[in-house]
Amino acid sequence: MSSDPAKPAVRVMGVLNMTPDSFSDGGALAGVEAGLARARAMVAAGADILDVGGESTRPGAAPVPAEAEIARVVPLIQAIRAGNPVPISIDTMKPEVARAAVAAGAAIWNDVAALRAPGALEAAAELGCEVVLMHMQGEPGSMQQEPRYGDVVAEVADFLAARAQAAIAAGVARERIWLDPGIGFGKHMIRHNLPLLAGLSRIVDLGFPVLLGASRKSFIGALDEGAPPDARLGGSIAAALAGAAAGVAAVRVHDVRETVQALRVWQAIAAAGT
Ligand code: HH2
């Protein structure tokens, strides 16, 4: 627990999608000025990290060529970097985009493909940045068609442990590695995401900081009469608090202010009982 009661121990990563087609905020940020305004607002609201993305990973999203992805994210990273020390992560599966983003000032490579693209392990080792290794069954285009698991928590944990070992073997420093269970990535909305959220402490037990991205995801709508993405704040906060209780290091969220407040209250209650 943090000794400063106002500052949540769980870090909050704000989502900044520079995409026309992201599932919950696609098209909201057209251009550097809009992105920068959102970035400033998120930092003022208490974001500890900003996650900049230029390609949607929602099921069925159109792939984006590397040059187009770079053109979407690099100017924003440079603009944020020029005015604020907040750490920036780049949400990409492509080594060339990660290289351009790190050169522009990103400190973390958030890879939903867990460095499985050709050349990704070598690029991460060379860049020396922090890396988030996320679990995904299948590919973004088809991952939701028929996801299958025996024991979802064990399979996700085994995959993440293996990817962490592969990264270390390639030269990524152990202390730079984060793990992420990949809520919604090749998982049935209820049968897989809920046991995974319930079993998060087994991922935490692998000994790496864990990032949880459950904000506005479909399982929340499935549990609440089909609520659309912008009406899933309550469920997003419930999932973030479940993550905090399980010991995750950070949560990736769209609604920074509300999440920071929930974590503050949750943490203050936990501290008052000890
Ligand atoms: N979820 C999304 C994107 N990137 N990265 C990590 N590490 N963990 C996640 O759970 C995660 C992620 C999907 O959310 P969003 O960015 O809002 O949508 P889209 O992929 O459509 O841009």
Tags for this model:
eight-stranded parallel beta sheet; globular; 42% helix; 274 residues; TIM Barrel; alpha/beta
Write up what this structure looks like:
The structure is a single chain. The protein is of the alpha/beta class and 274 residues long. It has one domain: Dihydropteroate synthase-like (TIM Barrel). Helices cover 42% and strands 13% of the residues. The chain contains ten helices and eight strands. Strands 6-5-4-3-2-1-8-7 form an eight-stranded parallel beta sheet. Helix 4 links the parallel strand 4 and strand 5. Helix 1 packs across helix 2, helix 2 packs parallel to helix 3 and helix 9 packs across helix 10. It is globular. The model has no long low-confidence stretch (mean pLDDT 94). The site of 6-hydroxymethylpterin-diphosphate has 21 residues, from strand 1 and strand 5.
Named at the architecture level, the CATH assignment is: Alpha-Beta Barrel
Q: Biggest sheet: strands side by side, in what order?
A: 6-5-4-3-2-1-8-7
Report the CATH C-level class: Alpha Beta
Enumerate the spans where pLDDT stays under 50 for 5 or more consecutive residues: none
Which strand-content bin applies to the residues?
5-15%
Largest sheet descriptor: 8 strands, parallel
Which fold name fills CATH's third level, the topology?
Answer: TIM Barrel
Helix content percent band: 40-55%
CA-atom Rg in angstroms: 17 Å
Query: What small molecules does this complex bind?
Result: 6-hydroxymethylpterin-diphosphate
Structural class comes to: alpha/beta
Distance N terminus to C terminus? 11 Å
CATH homolog superfamily: Dihydropteroate synthase-like
Mean pLDDT across every amino acid position: 94
The number of helical segments is 10
Order of helices and strands: EHEHEHEHEHEHHEHHEH
Number of strands: 8
> Quick one: overall form?
globular
